[in-house]
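Q: For a teaching session next week I want to show students how multiple molecules come together into a single three-dimensional assembly. I've collected the sequence lines for a complex. Could you give me the predicted C-alpha cells for the whole thing so I can convert them for display?
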Amino acid sequence: MNLEELQQIAASVHADNEQFDFEVNVCQGTGCLSQHSDQIMAQLIKVVAEKGAKVHVRKTGCMGLCAAGPLVLVEPENQLLQHVGVQHAESVITHLGKEPEKELQCNLREHFDQQVHVVLENSGRIDPERIDEYIARDGYEGLVKALTEMRPVDVVQQITESGLRGRGGGGYPTGLKWGMVAKAVSETKYVICNGDEGDPGAFMDRSVLESDPQRVIEGMAIAAYAVGASKGYVYVRAEYPLAVSRLTASLREARRRGFLGNNICGTPFNFDIEIRLGAGAFVCGEETALIASIEGQRGTPRVRPPYPAASGLWGKPTLINNVETFANVPPILRKGGAWFAAIGKGKSKGTKVFALTGKIKNTGLVEVPMGMKLRDIVEGIGGGVPDGRTFKAVQTGGPSGGCIPAELLDIEVSYESLVQAGSMMGSGGMIVMDDTSCMVNVAKFFMEFCMTESCGKCIPCRAGTVQMHELLSKICEGRASMDDLDLLIDLCGTVKEASLCGLGQTAPNPVLSTLRYFKQEYMDHIQNKRCSAGVCTMTHEGVTA
Amino acid sequence: MSAATDIKTLVINGQDVSARPDQTILDVARENGINIPTLCHLDGLTDVGACRLCLIEVKGQNKLFPACVTRVEEGMEVTTESERLAKHRRTILELLFAERNHICAVCVANGNCELQSLSQELGLTHVRLPYRNPELNVDASHERFTCDHNRCILCTRCVRVCAEIEGAHVWDVMGRGADCKVITDLETPWGDKNSSCTKCGKCVQVCPTGALYEKGKVGIEKPKHPEFLPYLNLMREAQ
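A: Of course. Below is the structure for the complete assembly, covering every listed component.
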C-alpha cells in the first residue's frame, strides 16, 4: 500500500457516492440504537427501495447531540434531523432536497459552530465498519506517510512537537512517553490502548470506538512503528459490546487491507492487535492494573516505578495510551505537529472531547479546543440548565475530579486550570448539576463509587473509603457532629497521600472540592439538620448542634 | 558485578549511609539501625507496597514513597520520622483495627501480634473510627491450622509465602475493596480432602496477626517464626 493506492481507494468510494443524489446517515451509536434507530434505518432502506430513489442510506456512529436522538444527517445539505421515528421514514425521503418537516429540523447552530472536530471528524459521517470510507476521508495517510517517509524518531518528534498530552486524565506528555519506550532496549515491546473507560457519565472512548474504530487502529500502528513494538492490545470494557464488535470487524478489515500483519505497506514493519475484554473493574483503567489484567492476573495496581515504559506487559517496555490519545495521532501525522499545536492554549494543545450529561439541555458528546471557557461549553454548546432551574456546579474528572461552582465558570478548560480549581481534566466526563442537587450527597455518591471499586490492595483506600462513606452518610442523614467533619477531613488527607494508586489518591477529591466551594451545605446538614436542595432525608430533625 | 562497584551514598534522618544500587530504602535503614514500621513486608518475600506504613519523605518531593519498594538513589535525603508520617501511620492502624474484629483480649495472638506491637510502638492509644464489626467466618477445617478472617489484615504474606517459597499457591485473594478475603484453592475449605495444601505451615509462621494459627496453642505459647525465610532463600541461592 502506498499513497497512490490510498487515493485510488478514496476515488472509488467517491465515485460510488456520486451515483446517489442524497446520502442519509443514520446514527447507530449506542444512544440512538437504544431508541431503535436500527429499525428506522431498515424502514428508510425499505422506503428508498420502494421509491427507487437514488439515496444512499448509511449506518454511522455518534453525531454528538444524543439529547435529540435518534439522529439522521442528510447530505449534501448537511441537514440534521432530530427525534426521528420509524413513522418519519416516508417523510424524510420525500422531503429530501426540500425543507424537512418542522418537528424534525434540528438547527442548533450555537451547539455545533463552537466545536472543533479532530477526534470526531469522521463520527457520524462514515460507516464505522467500512475501512474504505475511512480511507476516503484521508484515513491511513498518516500511517503510510510514517512508514514510507519517516524514521521512528521523526514520528516521536512530530508527536512531541504537537504538544499532545494523555487524554485519559493524567495529561502526561505523549511525545515524552513515546520517546521513553522508543529508547528502552528490548527485542519485544508492546503497545496498549486503554479503553477501560469507567468514570460515571463518561462515554467518549466508547463513542470513538463505535464511530471511527479505524483511527484508533491507525494511531496504534503509528505508535508501534515509533516505539518499535510489533504487538498491540486494545483493552475494552465488556460493557461496550457494540464497540467490541465494531472494533473486531475493523481489525479484520485493517488486516485485509494490509495495515496490520507482516510487512505493512511493503516495509519490514510488522504489527498486529488483539482485543482484551475488561471484566467490569474500574481500577483496571489504572495502567499497572490493566497490564496485570491482560496478563491474566488479578487486576490490582502495583507500585510505580518501574513505569510500564521500562517494565510493563510481561516485564517488557510497554506504551500505554488512552483511546482518545491514539485517535489524535493520525491527523497529527497527516497535517504535522505544528498544526495540532496551533489549536488550544498554553500547555494544553489540541481539542478535548467531553461527554456532557446531567442537568443540561444538549446532552451528548462535544469536542472543543483546549482553553475554551467552561461557561461557553455549559451555557453555549450545552444550552444551559433546562426547566428554568439555576446552575450550581459542574463535575469533571469523574470520581477523581471535583465540582466547579458557578463563580468559576469563566475559567479556561486546560489540564492546569482544572487542577487549580480542585478538579481535574479526567477522561472527559462533565456532569452538570442544578439547584436540585445536594453537594454532600454528590460527594457521597462518588465516595460510594470509589468504595465499591477499590481493589482492596492498600489499606488507606480499602478501609479509608468505607469510613469516609460512612461519615458522609452520617452527614446526609443529619446524624453527624462537627467532630465527624474534622475526622472526614483528616481521613481525606491520609487516603490522598498514602494510597498506592491513582484511585485512592484521588478518591477524596469530590469531598475536598465540595468542601472548598460548598462548605455551607455541609454546615447546614450538620448544624441545622437541613438539606437546602431537599435531597437528603434527615433522621434527626430539628436538633441543633 | 557492577552492582558491587557502584555504591550509592545517601542520607537517612541526617545520618550518612552507603548502599548497593539494588537495595531499597528499607533495607538500608534497617541495616543502619533505623526502624521503619512495616506490616506487609517480610524479609524473604517479594514486596507489594500495600500496607503503606513504611511511607517515607524524600527531600524535594512532595509525594511519599514506600520504603520497601523504593530503590536508593545517589544523594537522596530521606526522612523516616515526621509528624505527617506519624499521623498517616496511626490513621492506617486505626483503619485496620476498625475494619475487622481486632479485640486483643480475646485473640490467640495476644502478645505475639505485629499489629498490636506496632500500635504500641506508634503510640496508638485509641481508635477514633467506629468499628465495622463485619460478620466473618472462621475456617477450622484444617487438621493442624485455623484461618480466622476476623483477624486478617490482608497483608498477603500467606499468599506470597505459599506461592514463592512453598511453591504450592494454595492461597489467593478474592473479592474487591472491603469484601476482599484470602481464600484457599477456589474458596474451598482449607481442610478439604482435595486441598492442595502441603501442611507445611509457612503461612501460619508468617501471618502477622491471629488470622492464621496453629491449633491447640494459645497466646504466649505460640510465638511465630518468620525469620526462617531469608536463611532459606540464601541456601537456595547457594545451591
